[in-house]
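Researcher: Structure for this, please.
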Amino acid sequence: MRHTISVLVENEFGVLSRVSGLFSGRGFNIESLTVAETLDPTVSRMTIVTSGNDQIVEQILKQLNKLVAVIKVVNLTGAETVDRELVLIKVNAEPETKAEVLRLVDIFRAKIVDVAPRCYTIEMTGDEEKINALIQLLKPIGIREVVRTGRVAIARGM
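Model: Predicted structure, token format:
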């Protein structure tokens, strides 16, 4: 099962390395990891997506809480959350496929952020399923490159 963990940490040198080292040292895989400053520039939020059963995740949470630079750990799995991912997709734009690419961009509420003679770069935000659906529809047209941010998530409400 996939789990989403939100971790508030002190924004200082080496924290990311210590957190990722905790996972690798125990044989846990990080499927995605996003990190950025919060409103307070001395604090960063990490959103970590990992797989494992509930016991493994419980162990991860306990180990994260033991790290000195960790302020707060929240398991967002099963909670009401808003989560998004950003994707940039470079796709072929031959004369015979341009109209189809533009139609898909419109349907998925994406946008074209770069135009070259034979390719478009598309930007889209959404949940993982929406992004995967767009990628599947663009594959027959010809995807040249894909860059994804990984999940960012926040609990709903107060």
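Researcher: Any notable elements?
Model: Residues 28 and 73 are 17 Å apart (CA to CA). The radius of gyration is 19 Å.
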